[in-house]
Amino acid sequence: MILLIFAWFDWQVIKTDNFTIFHKPGYQWEANEFLINLEYYRNAAREMTGNDARPVYVVVEDIGSYSNGIADPFLGKMQVFTYPDNITELMSLQQSWHRAVAYHELIHILHMTRTSGLTRGLNSCFGNIFSPNMYAPMWWIEGIAVYGESQISPYEGRLNDGYYDRYMKTRAKSLPGLIEISNEPLRFPVDQSYLYGGQFTQYFIETYGQNSLNDHLRIYGHYFWAPLTVILPVFGIDMSMRKRTGKDFPTLYRYFRQAIADNISEPERQDHQITSRGWYIGSMIARGHDIHYARKSLFKAGPFDVFASHRINKYDTRNAEEQITLKTNSLVTTPLRILDNKLYYTMREIKRGAANSYIQGFGYTSRLYCFDLLTNKKEFILEHDIRAFCLQSNSRLLFACDRKHAFGSELWRGQILPEKIMETDFLIYELIANDKYLIAVAARPYENSDICLIDTVTGRIEPIMITPWNEGQLYFKNESTILYIANYRGQHDAYELNLIDQTVYRITNDFAHWPLIIDNQLYFTGLNEMGFDLYRLPYQPQPFAFHEKEIIVDRPVQTPVQTRPGNFWDLLATLEPAARVPVIYPVNEGLTSWQPGFFMFGADAMLENIYTALLTYNNSLYYELNWRSNIFMPLSVNFNASPDLVKLFFSYPLHIQLRPGINYFGFLIDFRSFDDFNRKEFAPSIYMRFDQSPHYFFIQARLPYERQTWYSNIDRSAQQLIAGLKLRANTRSFYLLSYFHNDPDNPDMPRIPIRGYDELRSYQGLLIHNALDQKLFSIRQGLWNPNIYIEDLFGSVFFDAAIDQDQELYWSTGIELKAEIKAGFGYIKFIPIIGLSLNRNREIRVYFNIQPATENPY
C-alpha cells in the first residue's frame, strides 16, 4: 500500500458531482477541456441512453501522436488520449477533438451500464458484470455512439462527413449480412462496426422514433440472464427488440438492407479506375509523369494472424505500371513531399517519457526520412512530434507540431538543430510551400479546418477559404493555384483555388481524394467496394461558389464548470472490486461433487494495478490471488499466490522501436516458491525480437536456479532457450520454432512437446518445429442462433524433430486443417485443429484440439 501511495502521487484529480478526472501533472488544461465538454453534453447523452451513471472516472493520457478513446463499462471508466485526430487523412468532420472523443466514450459508458429492475440490484451487489447492454454485437455498441456523436453538430461526426455515405453507395446492392458484420471478417474498411452500426442506428431511430433506442435499452436492461444470450440472441437482444418493434434483429437488419438497396445507388462513374488493389491510399504527390503515394493493406498469413503492409509506391502514368518505391515497418504519418529528386516522408515511431499508463510511459512520435529517388538511398533527418511539414525552395525544412497544454501549433524550422519560429492559436494539419506562398490547412477551436496563408515574419495566419466544412489534401497546380479536397454538404470532391483572386473551381463530381494534374489529366484516389484506388478524369474545371449559410452550434466554453480538487482517496476508491460474484463449479469429472466459492476482479482507473481473487472452500480453504502492477513504469510486476505456490515476476523493456531492426529487447526475472513451498526457483531471462515487417525473429534465454542455501529442497542449474522465425506473405506463412533445455537436476522431468507421440520427456532435449500455413479458402458463413461464424480455412504442412538426452532422434510429419471460429458476436475466438501425423515408427495418428485465440488481431 505504501508503494501505491507514492506511485499515485504522480496523478492529480479534479472532479464534479458527475465526473472524476485523473491526469498527470501539467495536464490541467487537457483535463479541463474534457471535463467542460463532458458536463455540457452529459444531458444529451443521458436523454439518448436513458441512463445517468455517476461518477464516471475519466483518465487523461498522453501517448504521443496517436488519437483514440476507450470505454470500460466493467470499471465504469474511460480513457481519453490528448492528441487530436488527423482530420485531413479521410477528411473527417471534427470541430473539437475533446468534445468528439469524450462524448463518444460517454455514450458507451451510459449505454452499456443501463440497467433496470432486478438487474440493477444484481449490479449493485455483484458489479457491472450483469449489465445486459454490454452483451451486444460490437456494431450495435459502436453504432449507437457514432449516431450520437453525429447529432451534436451538422459539421461533426462520421455520419455527417460523407465518407461513410459514399462507401454505402458502393455496397448498396451487396451489403454484408448480419452475421458477417457481427464478426467483422478481414476486409475493407477496418472500422466496419462504426460504419454499418452507425448507418443501422440512424435507420432504426428514423424508422421507429427518437425514443425507440431508449426503450430498447430499458427493456434489455431488465434481462439479468443476458450474459448467457451472446450464444443464443433469441433469448436476449432479439427478445427485447421484438418487444419494442415487433421484429428481432435479423428481421430489422433485413429491412435495413432492403431500404439501402431501394433508396441508395452508386452514381454512374465518369472516371477511369487505373489500379485495383483496394485498402488505403494517401499522400499522393507527382514528380514528372510519376505519382508517389503511401499504400496500406491488410493481409492474413494464418489463423487470426493479420498483418499490415505499409509501402510507398510509384505509378508511372506513361506505362500504366505500379511499382514499390520502398517498404516501411509502420504508418506514414504525414503527406509526402518531393524536392530536388528526393522524397521526404515521416514514419510512426515509439519514444520514452510519455505521460500515460496505457503503454507504460511510452508514446508515439514521428521520424522524418529523405529517400533519394535517383540513388535509392535513405537518410534519417530528425525525430519529433511532427503533425505537418513542408520544404521551402531553399531546401529549408519547416514543420508544425501541436502546442503542449494549449490549443494551437508551434512552427519549427531547420533539420539538425531546429528552432521554433512562431506559435499560433490555429491547429495546423498540413503545410505546403513554394517560392511565393506558405499555405496551411489549419483550424481554430470548435471549427473544422480552413485554407490559410502563413507569414512567418509577422507570425500571422490568415484564412483565405472559410467554410464550416473541411478543406485539406493540398497540392500546387502552379505557382499561384492549388488543388484541394473539401466535403461541402457531405460530398468529397476536388476543387481548384486561385490564390490571387480566390476564385474556386470544382473539378470532380463524385468522391475524390488527393488530386493532382499530369498532362491535362486529373488523377486522384477514389472509393470502391475494396477500398481506395487510383482514378483519372479529363481535367475540366467548373466555376463554383459556396453559398451555404453556416448553422451555429452552441459551444461548451460559454458555460463555465465549477470543479473541485480531488485527492488520494479518489484514487483509492477506484480499486473497489468491479466484479464480486459467488461461483460454484465441479471438482471432479463425474460432476458428483461441487465446490462453492467467491470471485473478485478490480483495478484502479489508470489500470496501473489489476487484481483478481478466487476463494473456495471444500474441507479446506483454497485461494488464487493475482496482482499486476505498473506503478514503476516501464517495470511491470506480477504476483500470484495459491496454497502451494507463490510467484513474483518482473519484466522491463530496455529498448522498443517500430522501425526495422531490433524492435524489442528486455529482461525478465521470476521467483517461484512451489511444491508446498519446498522448492524455490530464481530465473532471469532476456528476450529480443528482430522485425523486418512482415517477418520477424525472436529469441529468449532463461536460466532457472535453485539452491539449498535459500531453503530450496534441491540444488539446480538449468538452461532454456527458445527461438522462432516467422516469414509471412499475403495468404501464407512459414514458421520455424526451436526449443532447447538442459535441466538434469529437475525431479520433474521436462516434456518435449512433439506431435505424433504420446509423451516424450527428457532432462535434456532439442525440438525443432517447422510449419507452412496456407489459406485454402474463405467460408465466411454462420448462424445468428446459435451465434457462431466460420471465417477462413487454412491448411498446414509440418515437420517436427526432437533429440532427447540419449541422442535418440524422433521425428513426425503431417498435415493439419485449421478453421477460424468466432462465437458470441465475435467476442469468443478459437481455432479447432484436425491433424494427421506420421512418426518414425510409421504410426499414423489422427488428433483434434482447440487452440484459443485470445486477442482480436484486427
TrEMBL record:
Protein name from the UniProt record: Bacterial surface antigen (D15) domain-containing protein
Organism for this UniProt entry: candidate division WOR-3 bacterium RBG_13_43_14
